Amino acid sequence: MIDNPLCPLCSHENTNHFHKDDFREYLTCSVCDLAFAHPDSWLSRDEEFKRYELHENNLEDPGYRNFLTKMCEPMLQRIQPKSKGLDFGSGPGPLLKLMFEEQGHEISIYDTFYAPDTSVFNTSYDFITTTEAAEHLHNPLEELDRLWTSLKAGGFLGIMTSLRMPPLNFTTWHYIKDETHVIFFSPKTMKWLADHWNAKLEIISDSVVIFEKHSYTRPSADSNPRLAGKTT
Fold first, then answer.
1. pTM across the whole model
2. Domain for residue 35, yes or no?
3. Phi and psi (nearest 5°) for 9?
4. Residue 19, in any domain of the structure
5. Which of 139, 88, 97 is nearest to 116 (CA)?
6. Per the domain annotation, does 36 fall within a domain?
7. Cβ atoms of residues 156 and 162 within 8 Å
8. Is the confidence at residue 220, as pLDDT, over 80?
9. Range of the domain at 77
10. Would you state the pLDDT for residue 58?
11. In this structure, what CATH number is given to the domain that contains residue 93?
């Protein structure tokens, strides 16, 4: 086992062990505040898929529709009529796609298991949603940066995932009981992402955040050596 793995999000080496249960060990990053299960405990792709096949996401289930409303409603309040969107991590039952289409929007979907057509990333979108998918990502910055790159200037990225918010007791948190959940965001982590993208961040609730992409995105020092060591 790697004693102190790098942070899966920001790749920083300042990670610290802080909890262990019967199944996994957990660490936190001192830079972006991401919590994560030790990578040695992450399931294989085949094991993940078997877990997902046990999920019941019925398109006719009013409870499931109500659950997705937590993302749908705040996004509808921000986007223009007949917007073009992408739902990332749509799963086997893309109900959120239908909910936006009912309101006159055009939606594409992507899911690494159920809708793996990567050509959707060749298009730019007015808005992008990802509901209960971010916590599963093994390469979160790569995947989230891909979404951000696919977003038009002035567009919105909505992420729905349970946040580590006080007075949460992580040791008894139901969210860590799912072995397919490997990374756990806090409001501070979302702020780190907003700074990384030079984006406006709105924390809508304890499980929904929305980033707004400015018309101009400042290059980061990491991507432009000439900016290294400079501040604005």
1. 0.90
2. no
3. -95, -60
4. no
5. 88
6. no
7. no
8. no
9. 45-170+186-227
10. 66
11. 3.40.50.150
